[in-house]
Amino acid sequence: MKEPTDEERARVSGPVMRTFENIAKRWDLPERRRLQILGCNQRDFRNWVRLARRHQPLVLETNTLMRISAILGVFAGLRQFGKTAEEEKHWLLSPIPVAPFAGQAPIGLLSESFERQIDVRRYLEAIVPSSIPNEADAIVEPYSIEWH
Fold first, then answer.
1. d(CA 75, CA 80)
2. Under a CB-based contact definition with an 8 Å cutoff, are residues 42 and 8 in contact?
């Protein structure tokens, strides 16, 4: 993957940060959890949010943008099921016995490394029903997320 330029990062940083904040609010994530997800300190985080809200220049590091991208993918995966914010939060907080979770709640993995965030994103991508069925779909039993 080619490293994005400063100009590319500057173009997307504000909108991406605002989107991340909207998702975090939807999921009622406390600031501590947001810092863990982004892998940053409180001072930087608050500055990023302030700049993004004011539509002022902001250039996030590639690592931060990648972490936010993973969260956007998780959000998109959950939205494919058409569930409410409450159901999304319940899923994020519920232990899941299968890999990659091994009994942990998804939010725990999202708060770890970028690689673990991608594990959650890939899990959702794997279970989201395909929009274009093909021959292989006829022999596979659909998998569903348990929404309690």
1. 9
2. no
DSSP string, 5-32: PHHHHHHHHHHHHHHHHHHHHHTT--HH
Q: Which two tokens stand for residue 79?
A: 């939205």
- Candidates 110, 108, 111, 105; CA nearest to 91 is 105
Give, in order, the Cα–Cα distances in Å from 29 to each of 91, 105, 131, 142: 13, 14, 31, 31
Q: What is the pLDDT of residues 36-92, one digit of tens each?
A: 999 999 999 999 999 999 999 999 999 999 999 999 999 999 998 877 999 999 999
| Cβ–Cβ under 8 Å, residues 17 and 48 | yes
Between CA 137 and CA 119 the distance in angstroms is: 23
In angstroms, rounded to a whole number, what is the distance separating the alpha carbons of residues 41 and 28? 19
Q: Give the domain ranges of the chain.
A: 6-129
Position 97, amino acid: P
The pTM (predicted TM-score) of the whole model is: 0.83
Q: DSSP state, 132?
A: S
